[in-house]
Amino acid sequence: MNATFPNATAAIIELERVKFQWPNNNQVTLDIEKLSVSVGEHLFIKGPSGCGKSTLLSLLTGIHVANQGKVRLLGHDLAQLKAQQRDRFRADHIGYIFQQFNLLPYLSLIENVILPCQFSLPRRKTIQGSLKHRAIELLTQLHLPTSLLHKPVLELSIGQQQRVAAARALIGEPALLIADEPTSALDYDNRTAFIELLLEEANRIGSTLVFVSHDPSLEKLFQRSVYLPSLNQARGIE
Prior knowledge:
Blueprint: E1 11-20, E2 30-38, E3 42-46, H1 53-60, E4 68-73, E5 76-77, H2 83-93, E6 94-97, H3 109-119, H4 121-125, H5 131-141, H6 158-170, E7 176-180, H7 188-205, E8 208-213, E9 224-227, H8 228-231
Parallel strand pairs: 3-8, 3-9, 6-7, 7-8
Antiparallel strand pairs: 1-2, 1-4, 4-5
Helix pairs in contact: 3-5, 3-6, 6-7
């Protein structure tokens, strides 16, 4: 059963009085009174390991549901959706760049990029022409040399794999892009260059970007930043 998601609000993300506690843990991990992210905004969420960053992302993507409060994306309370509906929502509306990229070695580079459109008809419908052509276009815009397009994923450098992961997140113009520490394996110059490219592409397709990192030096590249330990009233461990 698929849910339908007709309307976005001025805020693409809204958290109100959210609390989350992991099973068999006597401490609350997240306790956030309020957080709002506007459509098209670029938000940097910073904080050290263990402050709840990954837990927050799991709530924003509907992988987990808050024990208390409301987590709304595109105007929809994720707790009101069944697990299968949340999976569909995530596939249709969220592009995710994982810290370890999560590229599939048994798929070609192009197949990795077009994978989200195999699972989401709404994202597929945004593309005019072939998926392969759009994938190549995105990879080129992200400065991946065309000579690498037919190489196995595992033969690419870390920085090149990172661009493939970004293209996979961007394809189909998802409303929300979430990046979870995707630059942790890169040096400063390459980190900055990658984020500037990501911001450029997010602007071009009109996506909201939530970028999570423990590296405060990247903060200046974003419109707004949030220090999660200040926002999170809990004292739990991520």
